[in-house]
Amino acid sequence: MLIVAVDAAQLPPLYVTVVDRRHRPVGRVVDLFGNVKRPYAAVLCRDRCEHPVGEKIFSRS
Question: 24 in helix, strand or coil?
C-alpha cells in the first residue's frame, strides 16, 4: 500500500485506477483521509509496491 499526498483542489474519486508517468497501472485509491487542506490517499498496489519515492502518480478516470 502507498500513502500519497493529493491536491486538495483535484481529489480523485474512490476506487479510481492510479497510473505512473508511463501510464502503467500502479493500483487503486481505496481511502482518502487527513486534513481538508492537505489530504492523503491510500493506494492499494496491484502487484509489488516498487514505486520510486518522489515520482508523481496520476488518477485515470
Answer: coil
Give, in words, the CATH class of 2-60: mainly beta
| Amino acid at residue number 51 | H
Rounded-to-integer distance, Cα 59 and Cα 61, Å: 6
Count other C-beta atoms under 10 Å from residue 6's C-beta: 18
Ordered by start, the domain boundaries in the chain are 2-60
pLDDT (tens digit, 9 = 90+) per residue, 4-41? 999 999 999 999 999 999 999 999 999 999 999 999 99
State the cell numbers at 47. Answer: 502487484
| Cα 49–chain centre separation | 12
DSSP 8: G
